[in-house]
Design brief:
The protein folds into two domains: 248 residues, no CATH class; 143 residues, no CATH class. It contains 13 helices and 15 strands. An eight-stranded antiparallel beta sheet has the order 7-8-6-5-4-9-3-10. About 2% of the residues have low confidence.
Length: 406
């Protein structure tokens, strides 16, 4: 067999987390510090989001997603850094509003800029950094041993001192007007909930001739995919240390195999279909627990563009609310879904490349999905209430890449 590992791949990491979601999540105030929400919020610039779930479940929730999920659109504009400080744009979007902007360029070699939560970050080469006269710090660039050092400048434009006429602000204006003068392409997203990314009456942005791009999901069907028994991934308590170690090793192998299976489904690989009959000489891949896997029709929804992390959290919460809204439906109790996101990396070394999240089926307890009043009377209302108070288990994977420069 050929050996495909290299030094860069050995530096890549995947952080796996397992846990249980809370039984109720407030859509207006979702958690921010707990996994998987912290993983989602830790990737502010995302270019692709994909949701994979059984077709039967998607048919049930399709109308709810179309009506309740925020429609997305973003803009592509050409602006110089000095344009960000113009009075109308500066007051409307940075001082009062909240926008997300990211410039063109490759981190580690080009001058790249980002604007998030009012903080403007500038990644510059040493030569340009010294010419600006601004305060910054050196960063790892991922270059070779004798590559030139690079610097990053962080400017909090929401500070009270950041006003036209102030001494410190004049230094920034001078640097933008005399050193960083080039006009670059930006992706722009307005985080105000009522704008859907771009406001219709946006006079301050229209002066930059924005190209407004809709972000609608592309739907792909995957017929007869072998789905492994995902309920075996649920956490279990082990009575002894030896049993706990064995269980942990098995769980780690299962998580790795399921992550690979999700990637194969996303790629549309024929290796995960029930009708696949490839020669093992050409491919030795097999679906995890293939003997117990069930052929299932799957659907993938893929959004491409500048997608903020806040919207992805809303997507997750909406899916959880929809699936937990009908506990009597066996479709909802046995349904699972996966969310994968690819990030726009803005770090040359150990950039956060993205993440995947798999929400497992509901707990398979007798009271988890009673089919009617007779079943409720049989199992007991207390048992039913206890089952419904249990949140679903999840597995999340965060991917950290190696250096983009060799």
């Amino acid at each position: 067999m050929l050996e495909f590992n290299d030094d860069a791949s050995r530096r890549e990491k995947c952080f796996t987390s397992l846990g249980q979601l809370p039984p109720f999540i407030d859509p207006k105030q979702p958690p921010t510090r707990k996994v998987p929400f912290s993983a989602i919020l830790g990737h502010p610039f995302v270019h692709t989001v994909e949701v994979t779930l059984p077709k039967e479940a998607y048919t049930t929730i399709q109308a709810s997603l179309d009506s309740k999920l925020q429609k997305l659109r973003y803009a592509r504009v050409f602006m110089s850094l000095s344009s960000l400080l113009e009075t109308e744009f500066f007051n409307t979007y940075i001082k009062k509003g909240n926008i997300l902007m990211i410039s063109e360029g490759r981190s580690g070699s080009d001058s790249v800029f980002t604007l998030r939560d009012g903080i403007l970050k500038l990644e510059l080469s040493r030569e340009i950094f010294e010419r600006t006269g601004l305060t910054g710090k050196p960063i790892r660039s991922g270059g070779r041993k004798h590559a030139k050092e690079r610097y990053i400048i962080e400017l909090n434009l929401r500070l009270p001192s950041m006003l036209h006429g102030k001494k410190g602000f004049k230094r920034i204006e001078w640097a933008f007007q005399n050193v960083l003068t080039q006009s670059v392409a930006w992706l722009f997203f307005d985080l105000s909930s009522e704008t859907n990314g771009i406001a219709d009456d946006d006079l301050s942005l229209k002066g930059n001739h924005p190209q407004i791009l809709p972000c609608s999901p592309a739907i792909t069907e995957h017929p007869q995919i072998l789905v492994p028994p995902l309920d075996t991934l649920k956490l279990q308590d082990s009575s002894t240390a030896a049993a706990a170690a064995t269980h942990q090793a098995e769980l780690q192998n299962q998580c790795t195999e399921v992550s690979e299976w999700l990637a194969m489904v996303s790629l549309g690989s024929p290796r995960v279909t029930a009708a696949d009959d490839v020669d093992p000489y050409l491919s030795r891949y097999s679906v995890p627990d293939a003997d117990e896997a069930q052929p299932t029709d799957l659907v993938s929804l893929r959004w491409r563009g500048l997608i903020p992390s806040k919207w992805i959290v809303g997507l997750l919460v909406q899916l959880l609310c929809v699936f937990s809204g009908s506990p009597h439906s066996p479709t909802h109790s046995s349904a699972w879904f996966a969310i994968s996101a690819n990030a726009l990396g803005r770090e040359a070394v150990e950039a956060r490349d993205g993440y995947s999240l798999l929400v497992l089926p509901a707990l398979t307890m007798a009271a988890a999905a009673p089919s009617g009043p007779e079943d409720e009377e049989k199992v007991g209302k207390d048992a039913i209430a206890a089952a419904r108070r249990l949140g679903r288990h999840f597995v999340s994977w965060e991917f950290v890449g190696a250096s983009v420069l060799q």
